[in-house]
Amino acid sequence: MYSLLILVDSVIQIFIWMLIVSAVLSWLTAFGVVNRYNRVVSVIGDTLYRLTDPVLRPIRGILPNLGGVDVSPIVAILLLTFLRNLVFEFFSGRL
Are the C-beta atoms of 30 and 95 separated by less than 8 Å? Predict the structure, then answer.
């Protein structure tokens, strides 16, 4: 059971890092630091978008429009951290 707990924690941690990288990459492309027509940047950005958008889309639907500022990754990271802590609390008494 402990191995499953570590696996869930690792998956959540990897997804949090994917959210961070996706947000930073979107800022870099928006400010013109990174060329979005570069094939490597395009593939990485598209892959991160496809992996993170199913989680961020419902959050974007709930949050009000803040005028171009997307805070959905921050909300998702907070929810995932809460979920990870909740799983550890739930299973720590059972191990």
Answer: no
Residue 46 structure tokens: 């598209």
Q: What is the pTM of this model?
A: 0.88
Domain count, the chain: 1
pLDDT tens sequence across 2-20 = 888 899 999 999 999 999 9
Residue where the block lists tokens 């949050």: 63
SS3 69: coil
CB neighbourhood size of 72 (10 A): 21
19, 76 contact by CB (below 8 A): yes
State which residues form the domain around 21: 2-92
